[in-house]
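**User:** Once you have settled down, spend some time on the protein underneath, comparing sequence with C-alpha coordinates, and judge whether sequence predicts the C-alpha coordinates.
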Amino acid sequence: MKRAMALTEEMVARCHRVIIDTGPEPGLDYLDESDYAQIIDVAMAMRPPGPIWLFAYGSLIWKPEVEHVEERIATARGYHRAFCIHQTRWRGTLEQPGLMMGLMRGGQCRGVAFRVPDGEPAEILSRLIRREMTAKPPTYLPTWLKLETVDGPLSALGFAVNPKGRTFAGKHSDEHVAHVLARACGHMGSGAEYLFQTVRNLEARGIHDRHLWKLQQLVAQELSAGE
Protein backbone atom coordinates (compact mmCIF):
# COMPACT_ATOMS: atom_id res chain seq x y z
CA MET A 1 0.00 0.00 0.00
CA LYS A 2 1.34 3.39 -0.99
CA ARG A 3 2.16 5.59 2.00
CA ALA A 4 1.17 9.25 2.09
CA MET A 5 3.99 11.58 3.08
CA ALA A 6 3.35 14.01 5.93
CA LEU A 7 5.61 16.52 4.18
CA THR A 8 3.64 17.85 1.22
CA GLU A 9 4.41 19.87 -1.89
CA GLU A 10 2.41 22.75 -0.41
CA MET A 11 4.58 22.74 2.71
CA VAL A 12 7.73 22.61 0.61
CA ALA A 13 6.53 25.53 -1.51
CA ARG A 14 6.14 27.62 1.65
CA CYS A 15 9.81 27.02 2.46
CA HIS A 16 11.01 28.46 -0.82
CA ARG A 17 12.70 31.84 -0.77
CA VAL A 18 14.46 33.68 -3.57
CA ILE A 19 18.14 33.63 -2.63
CA ILE A 20 20.80 35.33 -4.72
CA ASP A 21 23.88 33.19 -5.15
CA THR A 22 26.84 35.18 -3.90
CA GLY A 23 29.29 32.75 -5.48
CA PRO A 24 32.25 30.96 -3.93
CA GLU A 25 32.90 31.79 -0.30
CA PRO A 26 35.87 34.17 0.07
CA GLY A 27 38.95 32.88 1.81
CA LEU A 28 38.47 29.21 0.98
CA ASP A 29 41.10 27.10 -0.73
CA TYR A 30 39.42 25.72 -3.84
CA LEU A 31 40.48 22.79 -5.98
CA ASP A 32 42.28 23.89 -9.13
CA GLU A 33 42.77 22.17 -12.46
CA SER A 34 45.85 20.27 -11.30
CA ASP A 35 43.93 19.00 -8.27
CA TYR A 36 41.05 17.79 -10.43
CA ALA A 37 43.46 16.14 -12.87
CA GLN A 38 45.09 14.21 -10.04
CA ILE A 39 41.76 13.13 -8.53
CA ILE A 40 40.48 11.98 -11.93
CA ASP A 41 43.74 10.09 -12.65
CA VAL A 42 43.45 8.22 -9.33
CA ALA A 43 39.78 7.40 -9.93
CA MET A 44 40.56 6.17 -13.45
CA ALA A 45 43.43 4.02 -12.17
CA MET A 46 41.12 2.32 -9.67
CA ARG A 47 38.19 2.02 -12.06
CA PRO A 48 36.97 -1.57 -12.43
CA PRO A 49 36.59 -3.01 -15.94
CA GLY A 50 33.31 -2.68 -17.79
CA PRO A 51 30.75 0.14 -18.05
CA ILE A 52 30.68 3.00 -15.57
CA TRP A 53 27.92 2.87 -13.00
CA LEU A 54 27.05 5.71 -10.62
CA PHE A 55 25.52 5.07 -7.19
CA ALA A 56 22.88 7.67 -6.30
CA TYR A 57 21.53 7.89 -2.76
CA GLY A 58 20.26 11.49 -2.58
CA SER A 59 19.80 14.31 -5.07
CA LEU A 60 21.56 12.41 -7.85
CA ILE A 61 18.49 10.14 -7.96
CA TRP A 62 16.21 12.96 -9.07
CA LYS A 63 18.79 15.35 -10.50
CA PRO A 64 21.58 13.31 -12.08
CA GLU A 65 24.55 15.12 -13.56
CA VAL A 66 24.92 12.76 -16.50
CA GLU A 67 22.59 10.86 -18.82
CA HIS A 68 22.02 7.20 -18.10
CA VAL A 69 20.92 4.24 -20.18
CA GLU A 70 19.94 1.85 -17.38
CA GLU A 71 19.10 1.96 -13.70
CA ARG A 72 18.96 -0.71 -11.03
CA ILE A 73 17.95 -0.70 -7.39
CA ALA A 74 21.16 -1.37 -5.50
CA THR A 75 22.43 -1.82 -1.96
CA ALA A 76 25.77 -0.53 -0.74
CA ARG A 77 26.80 -2.40 2.38
CA GLY A 78 29.13 -0.71 4.83
CA TYR A 79 27.64 2.77 4.27
CA HIS A 80 24.51 4.63 5.31
CA ARG A 81 22.86 7.97 4.55
CA ALA A 82 23.31 10.73 7.12
CA PHE A 83 22.70 14.47 7.19
CA CYS A 84 26.30 15.21 8.08
CA ILE A 85 27.35 17.94 5.64
CA HIS A 86 27.27 21.59 6.70
CA GLN A 87 26.07 23.86 3.87
CA THR A 88 26.42 27.63 3.57
CA ARG A 89 25.59 27.66 -0.14
CA TRP A 90 23.26 25.79 -2.53
CA ARG A 91 20.60 24.87 0.07
CA GLY A 92 21.75 27.12 2.87
CA THR A 93 23.42 30.46 3.52
CA LEU A 94 26.10 31.82 5.80
CA GLU A 95 23.35 33.36 7.91
CA GLN A 96 21.23 30.19 8.03
CA PRO A 97 23.29 27.11 7.13
CA GLY A 98 21.68 23.92 5.91
CA LEU A 99 22.51 20.23 6.07
CA MET A 100 23.03 17.77 3.23
CA MET A 101 23.36 14.01 3.14
CA GLY A 102 26.52 12.04 2.73
CA LEU A 103 27.48 8.36 2.73
CA MET A 104 28.97 7.56 6.12
CA ARG A 105 30.67 4.35 7.18
CA GLY A 106 28.54 1.67 8.78
CA GLY A 107 25.25 -0.03 8.05
CA GLN A 108 23.83 -0.20 4.55
CA CYS A 109 22.19 2.06 2.00
CA ARG A 110 19.64 1.24 -0.68
CA GLY A 111 19.75 3.55 -3.65
CA VAL A 112 19.88 3.58 -7.43
CA ALA A 113 22.72 2.52 -9.71
CA PHE A 114 22.78 4.37 -13.03
CA ARG A 115 24.75 3.03 -15.99
CA VAL A 116 26.08 5.95 -17.96
CA PRO A 117 26.51 5.85 -21.74
CA ASP A 118 29.71 4.48 -23.20
CA GLY A 119 32.04 7.29 -24.16
CA GLU A 120 35.02 9.03 -22.66
CA PRO A 121 35.29 7.68 -19.08
CA ALA A 122 37.60 10.49 -17.94
CA GLU A 123 35.15 13.13 -19.19
CA ILE A 124 32.23 11.46 -17.39
CA LEU A 125 34.21 11.16 -14.15
CA SER A 126 35.33 14.77 -14.47
CA ARG A 127 31.75 16.05 -14.62
CA LEU A 128 30.72 14.04 -11.58
CA ILE A 129 33.78 14.90 -9.54
CA ARG A 130 33.50 18.61 -10.29
CA ARG A 131 29.87 18.55 -9.15
CA GLU A 132 30.68 16.94 -5.81
CA MET A 133 34.11 18.36 -4.97
CA THR A 134 34.99 22.06 -4.80
CA ALA A 135 36.98 23.25 -1.78
CA LYS A 136 39.86 21.76 0.19
CA PRO A 137 39.94 19.51 2.06
CA PRO A 138 37.11 17.96 0.03
CA THR A 139 33.97 16.81 1.84
CA TYR A 140 33.37 13.92 -0.53
CA LEU A 141 35.77 11.29 -1.81
CA PRO A 142 35.16 9.38 -5.06
CA THR A 143 34.92 5.73 -4.08
CA TRP A 144 34.29 2.60 -6.14
CA LEU A 145 31.57 0.80 -4.22
CA LYS A 146 30.59 -2.85 -4.44
CA LEU A 147 26.82 -2.98 -4.89
CA GLU A 148 24.26 -5.76 -4.67
CA THR A 149 21.38 -5.87 -7.15
CA VAL A 150 18.79 -8.47 -8.12
CA ASP A 151 20.75 -8.90 -11.37
CA GLY A 152 24.00 -9.59 -9.54
CA PRO A 153 26.85 -7.57 -8.05
CA LEU A 154 28.38 -4.55 -9.72
CA SER A 155 30.88 -1.80 -8.97
CA ALA A 156 29.81 1.83 -9.09
CA LEU A 157 31.28 5.22 -8.40
CA GLY A 158 29.95 6.78 -5.21
CA PHE A 159 30.90 9.79 -3.15
CA ALA A 160 31.63 8.81 0.43
CA VAL A 161 32.05 11.35 3.21
CA ASN A 162 35.54 12.45 4.14
CA PRO A 163 35.53 12.85 7.97
CA LYS A 164 38.41 15.31 7.55
CA GLY A 165 36.51 17.33 4.98
CA ARG A 166 36.00 21.05 5.48
CA THR A 167 32.20 20.85 5.78
CA PHE A 168 31.85 17.54 7.59
CA ALA A 169 29.48 18.18 10.48
CA GLY A 170 29.24 14.77 12.12
CA LYS A 171 25.97 13.19 13.14
CA HIS A 172 23.06 15.10 14.66
CA SER A 173 19.83 14.12 16.34
CA ASP A 174 16.81 13.72 14.08
CA GLU A 175 15.17 16.64 15.85
CA HIS A 176 18.09 18.94 15.09
CA VAL A 177 18.21 17.85 11.45
CA ALA A 178 14.47 18.47 11.07
CA HIS A 179 14.80 21.90 12.68
CA VAL A 180 17.53 22.87 10.19
CA LEU A 181 15.81 21.44 7.11
CA ALA A 182 12.56 23.22 7.92
CA ARG A 183 14.33 26.59 7.88
CA ALA A 184 17.39 26.50 5.59
CA CYS A 185 17.17 27.66 1.99
CA GLY A 186 19.71 28.64 -0.65
CA HIS A 187 19.70 29.59 -4.29
CA MET A 188 19.24 25.92 -5.28
CA GLY A 189 16.21 25.47 -3.03
CA SER A 190 15.31 24.56 0.53
CA GLY A 191 16.35 21.74 2.80
CA ALA A 192 12.72 20.66 3.00
CA GLU A 193 12.58 20.32 -0.80
CA TYR A 194 15.80 18.27 -0.82
CA LEU A 195 14.34 15.83 1.72
CA PHE A 196 10.93 15.75 0.04
CA GLN A 197 12.30 15.00 -3.42
CA THR A 198 14.66 12.34 -2.11
CA VAL A 199 11.97 10.49 -0.15
CA ARG A 200 9.42 10.78 -2.96
CA ASN A 201 11.82 9.45 -5.58
CA LEU A 202 12.99 6.61 -3.35
CA GLU A 203 9.39 5.60 -2.61
CA ALA A 204 8.54 5.74 -6.32
CA ARG A 205 11.19 3.05 -6.83
CA GLY A 206 9.96 0.91 -3.95
CA ILE A 207 12.74 1.98 -1.57
CA HIS A 208 11.44 2.79 1.91
CA ASP A 209 14.12 4.43 4.05
CA ARG A 210 12.68 4.39 7.57
CA HIS A 211 15.06 7.05 8.82
CA LEU A 212 14.25 9.52 6.03
CA TRP A 213 10.56 8.72 6.45
CA LYS A 214 10.78 9.72 10.10
CA LEU A 215 12.66 12.90 9.16
CA GLN A 216 10.00 14.00 6.67
CA GLN A 217 7.39 13.55 9.40
CA LEU A 218 9.45 15.67 11.81
CA VAL A 219 9.99 18.40 9.20
CA ALA A 220 6.25 18.44 8.50
CA GLN A 221 5.63 18.85 12.23
CA GLU A 222 8.11 21.74 12.38
CA LEU A 223 6.41 23.48 9.48
CA SER A 224 2.92 22.88 10.84
CA ALA A 225 3.92 24.27 14.24
CA GLY A 226 5.16 27.45 12.56
CA GLU A 227 1.87 28.19 10.83
Notes: Residues 42 and 129 are 12 Å apart (CA to CA). The longest helix spans residues 210-225. The two ends are 30 Å apart (CA to CA). The first strand starts at residue 53 and ends at 56.
